[in-house]
From TrEMBL:
Keyword Cell wall biogenesis/degradation on entry: no
Keyword hit for Transmembrane: yes
Entry protein name: OPSG protein
Organism of this sequence: Catharus ustulatus (Russet-backed thrush)
Signal peptide residues on this chain, from the entry's feature table: none
This protein's UniProt keywords: Membrane, Transmembrane, Transmembrane helix
Transmembrane stretches, start-end: 55-74, 86-106, 126-148, 213-235, 247-270, 290-313
PANTHER family: C130050O18RIK PROTEIN
Length: 352
């Protein structure tokens, strides 16, 4: 075929692959005719509803309280010039997770979905992805900081990490660009049309999930595993604490890293499965929809759990919590030992 004709066919194929008007949720589109299909949908929606209620009732309040306490502690330490590089990075990590927790309120309508325009859904997706990307890359920067603290002989890297604000700024700029790219890949047409909205829009192009998996999980996880591999395999220099002592000194970072990897692995596997269905031009089954909803809620649970781990495992936060508990105990004991004035007793004979 002539070049112009080949180009025309290529454009038509791309337009066809990017035309997502056909896609919908299985629970919203299939004409259920048999009793078994109807019962499967009802059971799936009941499970999603229970997961949502447990998340909203237990994880959201706990995560938000822990996040607010961490913010207060870090800001207080910064004003008193007690802040360290690690605290600054964990502060950014906390803010990213708080953003994700607030955006997770979109699951309140489950098993139904938030109904907004494509444009509004893309805006929500942008902020969600910013929190999603930034939390993972800031955690990697934190791991790198701890690694260089242990292996101080790497002079070049140590000098580069000496400016934490500059490093954090570069990471946030990078994640902003990734989030903007994802907002574009959510689709550039039909902004005025209403749709059922998830924070990872169902109507997004297949490239949306591919970019999210590659830059939001694949690359960060490889960097994360590389940090762990160097930490375990390379012998510490003379005078440095043992590996066990090093991990016990920063348990919050390492516990959060493992938790994040497990939860995001489950979530990204489901993201890839959804991409496969899109490429096959299939809407999937109600079971696929159920597991994707569960994976999304598990991702939000991880954000809440990470903040709780930092509050009770990171030394500056743990010390402040212990101080508050001790102060409350002292006040309780003081109130219990208040002397109650005794009233004079009168004897039957009339004498006192």
């Amino acid at each position: 075929a002539p070049p112009k004709q080949r180009n025309k066919h290529g454009v038509e194929r791309r337009m066809a692959s990017h035309n997502m008007t056909w896609i919908s949720y299985p629970s919203k589109s299939q004409p259920f005719t048999s009793q078994e299909e109807i019962e499967a949908v009802i059971a799936s929606q009941n499970i999603i509803s229970r997961f949502m209620h447990c998340y909203i009732a237990f994880f959201v309040p706990t995560g938000l309280i822990a996040g607010i306490c961490i913010l207060i502690i870090f800001i207080k330490n910064h004003l008193q010039n007690k802040g360290a590089t690690l605290d600054l990075l964990l502060l950014l990590f906390t803010i990213s997770n708080i953003i994700m927790i607030f955006l997770s309120f979109t699951v309140i309508s489950r098993p139904d979905y938030l109904t907004v325009t494509h444009l509004a859904c893309s805006v929500l997706s942008f902020f969600f992805n910013f929190g999603y990307f930034s939390s993972h890359y800031v955690l990697i920067l934190t791991l790198l900081t701890l690694l260089l603290e242990r292996f101080t002989q790497w002079t070049a890297l140590c000098n580069a990490i000496q400016r934490p604000i500059l490093c954090a700024g570069l990471v946030l700029t990078y994640t902003f660009c990734l989030s903007l790219t994802e907002a574009v890949l959510a689709g550039t047409d039909n902004y005025h049309l209403e749709a059922h909205c998830q924070l990872d829009p169902l109507f997004a192009w297949p490239e949306y999930e591919m970019v999210k998996f590659t830059f939001g999980f694949g690359i960060p996880s490889l960097l994360q595993l590389l940090c762990f591999g160097v930490l375990w395999a390379k012998a510490a220099p003379a005078g440095a604490p043992s590996l066990q002592q090093h991990i016990l000194a920063y348990p919050a970072v390492y516990i959060t890293s493992v938790t994040m990897f497990i939860c995001r692995l489950f979530y990204n596997v489901m993201i890839l499965l959804r991409t496969t269905l899109k490429l096959q031009r299939s809407i999937g089954t109600t079971k696929n929809e159920l597991v994707m909803n569960i994976a999304e809620i598990v991702l939000f649970c991880e954000s809440c759990a990470s903040l709780v781990v930092i509050l009770f495992s990171h030394k500056p936060c743990r010390d402040e919590v212990v101080k508050v508990i001790q102060r409350c105990r002292r006040e309780t004991r003081a109130n219990n030992h208040l002397e109650i004035p005794e009233t004079a007793t009168t004897h039957p004979s009339g004498s006192q």
